[in-house]
Design brief:
Blueprint lengths: L17 H10 L3 H15 L14 H10 L3 E6 L6 H6 L6 E6 L2 E6 L2 E4 L2 E4 L10 E8 L2
Helix pairs in contact: 1-2, 1-3, 2-3
Length: 142
């Protein structure tokens, strides 16, 4: 059974960005709110470059800033050794929510389940279970 807190936003339609889907899941907000928060952070980061336009991709550092702007409290962990998403999921705390960055992808992990723009599945069935984790954030929930 899918753990509480692992649900895609109701307004998720059309093209889906993994970083923004993960952001909306951990912030428990709509996809549109996540896009707005990320866009605001992007604009403030690149205000000195007026021709720099957001093309739809996300960077980890700006997703983290958008998380802060949405009021999500978290603790950051850099991964210094090779660990896969599946291996990381085995060592996460029970009922804790994690925003995980793997090579070229972002997803949320809780109780051995992974959610990204494709939906929630057990980590053993996730298409990216063997991807290398580069960083993750433990989300502090109320």
């Amino acid at each position: 059974m899918v753990p509480d807190g692992l649900a895609l936003p109701d307004d998720l339609e059309g093209s889906r960005n993994c970083g923004l889907v993960a952001l909306s899941v951990v912030a428990r907000c709509s996809y549109a709110e996540a896009v707005r928060a990320y866009t605001d952070v992007f604009r403030s980061a690149y205000q000195r470059h007026p021709r720099k336009n957001w093309k739809g991709g996300t960077t980890w550092s700006l997703v983290v800033k958008a998380m802060a702007s949405l009021g999500v409290q978290h603790s950051h962990t850099e991964v210094t050794s090779a660990v896969t998403l599946q291996r990381l999921a085995q060592f996460t705390r029970r009922d804790a929510l994690y925003l995980v960055c793997t090579t070229g992808h972002a997803q949320v992990v809780k109780n051995g389940w992974v959610i990204d723009q494709r939906g929630a599945v057990p980590v053993e069935q996730h298409w990216g279970r063997r991807k290398r984790v580069t960083a993750f954030h433990a989300i502090k929930e109320d």
